[in-house]
Amino acid sequence: MSKETFYITTPIYYPSDNAHIGHSYSTVAADTVARYKRLKGYDVMFLTGTDEHGMKIEQKASQCNTTPKEYVDKIVANFKSLWKLLNISNDKFIRTTDDYHIKAVQNIFQKLYEKGEIYKGYYEGWYCTPCESFWTETQLNDGKCPDCGREVKKTKEEAYFFKISKYADRLLKLYEEHPEFIQPESRKNEMISFIKNGLEDLCVSRTSFSWGIPVTFDTKHVVYVWLDALTNYITAMGYAGDDESDYQKYWPADVHFIGKEIVRFHAIIWPAVLMALDLPLPKQIFGHGWLLFGDDGKMSKSKGNVVDPKILCDRYGVDAIRYFLLREIPFGSDGWFTNEALINRINFDLANDLGNLLSRTCAMIEKYFKGTLPLEKEGADIDKELSDLALQVKEKYENSMDKFQFSAAISDVWKLISRANKYIDETMPWILGKDETKKARLAKVLYNLCEVMRFICVLITPFMPSTAEEIAKRIGAQKDVVTFESLEKWGLLKQDVSVIKGQPLFPRIDAKKEIEELNMMFANQNNSKKEKDSAAKKIENVCTKDTIAIDDFAKVELKVGKIVACEPVKKAKKLLKLTVNDSVSDRTVVSGIAKFYKPEDLINRHIILVSNLKPAVLCSVESQGMILAADTDDGIKVIFVDDIPEGSIIR
Ligand code: MSP
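Above: inputs. Below: predicted complex with 5'-O-[(L-methionyl)-sulphamoyl]adenosine.
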């Protein structure tokens, strides 16, 4: 019987600059899913690639006195080598400059034109070069690009248009009938209001630059980059090309992983194009959050706050970085990348919890049994608690993994690791080892620990493939006992298993020294004075900042709340009145964020609420608490935690 297929994609990245850790985020996440699905026996197609056309690349290349193709070739090679380093298991890599893609896009454009879905007209409006997006006057935010806040250029030119407006109702129906189509849920509302504000026909060709795919029947036009880019998901499978067999096999995609700022293109333009072509729609668009860094928020070369993943991999190993990216931040929400958090995760989760469990187990088998366990064993009641927990993890883990809740899945694995470490403390093998008559019991305890390691090895395979392989080697597990199905049985390792002691999987790091070094290194690398100052400030903070006791912090009650209503406070330009539900009741919270958020942007968003703050009256409204927000150079940014249910306590 043929296997069930699973098709997953990452965004195709602009090769305008080398990849940074933010780009690695989508790719590592998609790789983890691809590995998880393969582990479960699916026939997986995992696609990534590069989006190489457009005015921005043309400009960059000319600044470097080179051709666009030469320019992108170099950067694409860097992307590919980074994916290799990060152990990315993509099945295909598409470049939008590949011949087969160019031909297929031309075919698609022609087909849409012949079907009357594309027509010729005049474009008049505003263009944002960095986002490659057109905007109408009303869509602009204070005259700037509503996505990135940068300057836009007035443009008028002959252009082809795609009749996207006629798909508005079908798109709304799609979201209603398939609530799982846009994930996380919270991003759907934005799309609905965008469509309800009125969809204007989309300009799908340009004449003002030439680095793009020419329209075959009107060659002064090149295809609008987003049409060129989005179609990669089907052209890479051979659609509108010479061999459509992969397209037939894998399309529709099961999920497109993308960053939240490009959900609009994927949830509106992409399905409308597919509807116009009479093709099936992808099953899900998952818009993950941003990895925020430094004081500036989203990482970008132009802001000079870029973290180079190669440096991190060289210092801590690839798997530590893969682990950190998916453990630290719930997929879907924004989260801060800090050097402190990275080092802490390596030290606590990887070196202490996981690494120690393995090294203690193997070291004791080495010490008491010269590396090979004897056949005679003696069980005890306490063993069942450990084996039961191991057997239960799979279901919870699958539940989280199937919803792309990586952090929750990892957390369940770590509960098993903690339980196993506790089992060592409870059974005290070092005491058993002193008594010749307890050798059979000791052998059983150590066997059980190897078995737990086998479970852990399978469960971390999608996240940390090399570490999993190494663990399997150390505990002498053959391939057939580290399959996903093997998680259903306890006791599959050979009774006379042999182990290898080996070096620590993750050496402990001197946190304070390392954090200082990293802060300085990134500041230097980004060559920006601001970064250097703030790194220096952080080092100073590590050394001198006043501290508070944990009891002081424990007095603050933090909960996740859902904003269910929001309106401006009369006669107070800066204030918004929020109604926040914490799963038990609604309360009013007044917040000084009116300059940065429109009320409709906040509805249904999940925030962090300080819930035991003394009420205060602001402009005649009583505020019963406050919400947490970050003070950034780009203004106040509310901390959204959309993946976490309202009412959750934050500790
Ligand atoms: N070329 C388009 C995508 C076309 S897909 C048909 C594009 N490219 S991009 O290089 O600018 O961004 C690619 C992806 O990287 C986006 O999903 C974006 O959200 C992601 N990231 C870039 N910086 C990021 C962070 N700092 N954090 C998380 N993801 C970020 O958009």
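The chain is about 45% helix and 20% strand.
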